[in-house]
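Page 42, continued from yesterday. The earlier attempt failed because a stray header line got pasted into the input along with the sequence. Redoing it now with the clean sequence only.
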Amino acid sequence: MITIRNYKKAESLEEAWRLNQQKSNRIIGGMLWLKMGKGTVQTAIDLSGLSLDQIEETEGAFRIGCMVSLRQLELHAGLNAYTGGAMKEALRHIVGVQFRNLATAGGSIFGRFGFSDVLTMFLAMDSYVELYKGGIVPMREFAGGGFDRDVLVRILVRKLPASFHYSSVRNTRTDFPVLTCAAARFDTETGPDHRFAIGARPGRAIVIEDGDGILSGGSTAYESREEQARAFGEYAAAHVPAGSNMRGSAGYRKHLVKVLTQRAVLQMGGAAGC
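This time it went through. Structure tokens are written below.
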């Protein structure tokens, strides 16, 4: 159980940052992950008065405030149009609607939870975090970093030409995932560029790219798109570290990496030249 001794609704990001430098203080979002822990919070810092609960869409980007709820992300027409429904698919299995109405995008990203569908999805996109003191940091760099006491202000997504796919495996519908897989195919001047994010390994999500050029080499080495996708699935399984926990063994997760990445390649249109 979490015990909160004092509550402060921040009037500015500077005030929130200053209060958060004290080790015993915590920034709170929806508090749904925080309350699952134990300990004492001297001062809970609330960012809800700073107008950070909006999704701003421009021609070239999305700006997602840290207090935006997961439900807002799930239902946002612009995000779902851009991702071809992948954003909704990434979010719709997270516990339940009531939970997603309260849980925040900022809390989900800042926590860097191993089971996070949210982090997995954003890692596949051309995304960044805006930190109050640290500035704009690539999501991949932020996800791989350690905990600090900066304030995550926004999540930024560049709207590059791309197609996306998201899938996960769960033992029960609203349980934490056994494995998550987000995939992106970016259309560049030199051809398609593929990126995959694998989460719930059970460690935090990581990015895997087509290091061997399996998906960019055309059809010359493969008889079919299915064979090419299968080859990449085997490559991904060999390069994604996996562990065991109560939801699945390392071997089972390795198998899922192969299956889900293979399906993602086919769903996004496969590889060049096939």
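Notes: Confidence is low (pLDDT under 50) at residues 270-274.
Reminder to self: strip header lines before submitting.
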